[in-house]
Amino acid sequence: xxxxxxxxxxxxxxxxxxxxxMGDPMAxxxxxxxxxxxxxxxxxxxAGDWVARNGGRSAPTPAEAAxxxxxxxxxxxxxxxxxxxxxxxxxxxxxxxxxxxxxxHTTASAAVARELASAAAxxxxxxxxxxxxxxxxxxxxxxxxxxxxxxPAAYAPGST
Length: 160
Known about the structure:
There is one protein chain. The protein is α/β, with parallel strands linked by helices. The protein has one domain (about 15-155): Rossmann fold (3-Layer(aba) Sandwich), CATH 3.40.50. About 35% of the residues lie in helices and about 20% in strands. It is built from seven helices and nine strands. It has helices spanning about 25-30, 45-55, 60-65, 80-85, 90-95, 110-120, 135-140, and strands at about 15, 35-40, 55-60, 70-75, 100-105, 125-130, 130-135, 145, 150. A seven-stranded mixed β-sheet has the order 3-2-1-4-5-6-9, sandwiched between helices. It has a two-stranded antiparallel sheet with strand order 7-8. Helix 2 (about 45-55) links the parallel strand 2 (about 35-40) and strand 3 (about 55-60). The radius of gyration is 14 Å and the shape is globular. About 40% of the residues are buried.
């Protein structure tokens, strides 16, 4: 992973769900920036390997990873995977504290983004649909383009 300098921002409690070719380096950049990162991956050994390389901790379910997190990020395979880690049994929405923000980096459908934004709002959570462009090298080098959509409150300073 390339060495990067980060602006001085307060460390946050963060969960990252999905440690594939994109999620692994994205989560690593958050840890390198000083955030307290808890990871979840459906293959627990992959989460353990990430923790060995980057610090932080792993959790056995998305809900447990999301517990007490200010922000929960996800980068999983598709709509069904995204539903599974959010509203499925043991999903992140069940563990998130009111006022925290879920940021979805999955390249998923607009329909699932609307569905999950509604489910998040019903629980007092923020939701940001934030697909990325730049491929795995962009993720490794911290040079992704992130396109964000969501309610303005999710972007407000101090919203968490």
